[in-house]
Design a protein that fits this description.
The chain is α+β, with helices and mostly antiparallel strands. The protein has helices spanning 2-40, 62-72, 98-109, 113-119, 131-140, 145-154, 186-197, 208-211, 233-244, 267-277, 295-309, 328-334, 336-345; strands at residues 43-47, 75-80, 83-88, 124-125, 158-170, 177-182, 223-224, 229-232, 258-261, 264-265, 324-327, 353-366, 375-382.
């Protein structure tokens, strides 16, 4: 009996601890969203998420920053008469970041031929892109929100397309298979050049993408949530019913869902907002991003540009668009990286075939500033067209 009582007390304690953590999370989100509303001079409605909120920004983050918040929390931002409403996003059909790859490919394939050629050689700056293109690239790249905003403010983010390859070959002596990723030899040089060229932009280069601000929120309306509070759906509808003298009903499964509301609402404004919040996303079939109608055409254009402008592992540039099988010695003669690999394995003097599968990647560089370090990485777009 004593053991049973102890077990019950432990369960009650766990439940209380769980409740405390949930309450703390709600309090953290409420404080974050209140700070966000005040800093941006706007009002926000947010479909709350179980994740921990980001750190509050001491500077305005603009519409781009709001879109970054939406993207990172799998939400979309809707402007309802000046109130910024964040609602759950329709799934893309992919469970990972592959649709971000598709978004990047669409931007790159849509560039003018001369700019696409530059992208495949020396790279381009964020400021070379249109506002819409720059916004899409920033939202699709896997970089921290603060670095994303820093890139938008300074316009000093440089990107380039580079060609790598997945290699596969069999040791002729042992029969052991060797596989790996062979980076493009020019990537290191490109990164050094990008560091040298990273200077402060002139005032005329300051970001248009970053400058857009949320409109001033409305001040009229019988329903006032003030600076903002987190409420359940049933509590929100209760307040609205009293304010508008209307009886509202909703799917009972949403009753305990929590939302942050701030600002003033007329009946029309409130009902428009609720139509977004109460929409239940239906079951959808997951579709691989490579099945998207424009994927193959985007892949073809990018592959052709790389074949013409990049420095591949063979002189005619065909590696950008096809798989190749060649002798190890031939590849070692044109790829310093592969030469080092086979030397390390003691295979430099042996004959063997190597299968190469082209991999296109995006090289990204953002220089450091007074308070933040540099950002430098590669994002693989995969084997285009395969």
């Amino acid at each position: 009996m004593l053991a049973y009582i102890v077990a019950v007390i432990a369960l009650v304690g766990q439940h209380a601890g769980s409740q405390t953590s949930l309450e703390q999370r709600d309090a953290d989100w409420q404080n974050y969203l209140r700070d966000l509303s005040a800093t941006e001079g706007t009002r926000v409605v947010f479909d709350c998420t179980p994740f921990t909120p980001p750190s509050s920004s001491r500077e305005p983050i603009g519409l781009l920053g709001l879109d970054i918040l939406a993207e990172r929390t799998n939400r979309r931002r809707v402007d309802v008469e000046g109130i910024q409403v964040f609602v759950r996003k329709q799934p893309t059909g992919a469970k990972d970041s592959s649709y971000s790859v598709l978004e990047l490919m669409r931007v790159f394939a849509g560039l003018e031929p001369a700019m696409l050629a530059n992208l495949c050689t020396d790279g381009i700056l964020l400021s070379d892109l249109s506002d819409d293109q720059a916004r899409t690239v920033l939202l699709a790249l896997p970089i921290e929100p603060e670095d994303c905003l820093r890139a938008a403010r300074s316009q000093r983010l440089r990107i380039a397309l580079d060609l790598s390859a997945e290699y596969e070959f069999q040791d002729p002596a042992t029969g052991k298979m060797h596989t790996g990723l062979l980076l493009g030899d020019r990537f290191g040089k490109w990164m050094l050049d990008a560091r040298k060229e990273a200077g402060s932009p002139s005032s005329s280069e300051q970001s248009r993408v970053f400058s857009a601000r949320a409109p001033k929120p409305p001040s009229d309306g019988e329903l006032d949530f003030g600076d903002g509070t987190i409420l359940t759906m049933s509590e929100i509808l209760e307040r609205a019913s009293k304010a508008f003298a209307v009886s509202y009903f909703i799917d009972s499964r949403l009753d305990r869902s929590k939302y942050f509301f701030s600002g003033n609402f007329t009946r029309e404004r409130f009902e428009t907002t609720m139509r977004h919040l109460s929409y239940v996303i239906p079951m959808t079939e997951g579709v691989p991003f490579k099945d998207a109608p424009d994927y193959l055409e985007s892949a073809r254009m990018i592959s052709q540009a790389l074949a013409q402008n990049a420095t591949p592992y063979n002189k005619d540039g065909q590696l950008a668009s096809v798989h190749r099988s060649l002798q190890g010695a031939e590849l070692a003669a044109t790829s310093r990286s592969f030469n080092n690999i086979i030397k390390g394995l003691g295979l430099a003097a042996r004959d063997f075939n190597v299968l190469l599968k082209p991999v296109v990647s995006v090289a990204v560089y953002l220089p450091s500033d007074d308070t933040n370090g540099q950002v430098a990485f590669r994002l693989n777009l995969g084997q285009l067209g395969s």
